[in-house]
UniProtKB/TrEMBL annotation:
<protein>
    <recommendedName>
        <fullName>Na(+)-translocating NADH-quinone reductase subunit B</fullName>
    </recommendedName>
</protein>
<dbReference type="Pfam" id="PF20090">
    <property type="entry name" value="DUF6482"/>
</dbReference>
<dbReference type="InterPro" id="IPR045508">
    <property type="entry name" value="DUF6482"/>
</dbReference>
Length: 104
């Protein structure tokens, strides 16, 4: 796990760090970090609890503030085994997310 402050420092040193927003059941969004194609780290707040957002916009706003450039959305299916899937319930490809609004 990586704290928000550490993530901000990491992004200054390695701006190409990939960030995944995980969409889970109950409109809960969590964030994972991919570093050098290695283990994904769940970001935490200062209390050590998993950082959770109640909307995609809330997550995007926080990540933009932290300096994230590469962000992707991934959907988590809680009951994957009920539809014949196995594994951790992460479904589909990563969908790129635009953090900067464009009004052109």
């Amino acid at each position: 796990m990586i704290e928000v402050k550490a993530l901000k420092s990491l992004l200054k040193k390695q701006p190409a760090t990939e960030v995944h927003i995980l969409s889970t059941e109950g409109d809960v969004y969590q964030v994972r970090i991919v570093q050098d194609d290695k283990e994904q780290l769940l970001t935490t707040d200062e209390t050590g609890k998993p950082l959770k957002f109640k909307s995609l916009d809330e997550a995007k706003h926080k990540l933009k503030y932290l300096g994230v450039h590469n962000c992707f959305l991934q959907h988590h299916v809680a009951y994957a085994e009920m539809i014949g899937e196995s594994g951790d319930g992460l479904q589909g490809d990563l969908m790129p997310i635009r953090l900067q609004e464009s009004y052109s």
